[in-house]
Here is the input.
Amino acid sequence: MAVVANPGKAPLLPIEVRTELITQVVADIPRVKVGHFQGLTVDFAKNNKISVIIRGLRAISDYEAELGMAQTNKQLLPELETIFLMTKPEYSFISSSTVKEIARLGGDVSQFVPPAVHSYLKEHVNFSRGAEII
Here is the structure.
């Protein structure tokens, strides 16, 4: 699994924390490694001998954006394939923006995030002060 530092987004948690939390969440899954990077996905794939990217889709709008990225990646690195997996319908509405907004307004996000993430957020993020890391 790869966590990307996307300069166009404002994530709640630093990339190192996100990487560590994902590592905890997938610890029981054999052969899964977690890393992070900045820059082009194709460079990360090439440097790590990755030939397939698996991307999750929630809605048709995700597909349109993801298809463009997959085609660009294929142009830059022809041996890189992208596979799309659809989410279960009951999770199709969940996004990081939605989860952050629920938490910011004092709601319980435990049903939307893994237990390790929920524990970290409760301990380290003060949502009453605009999602400030404490």
Notes: The two ends are 27 Å apart (CA to CA).
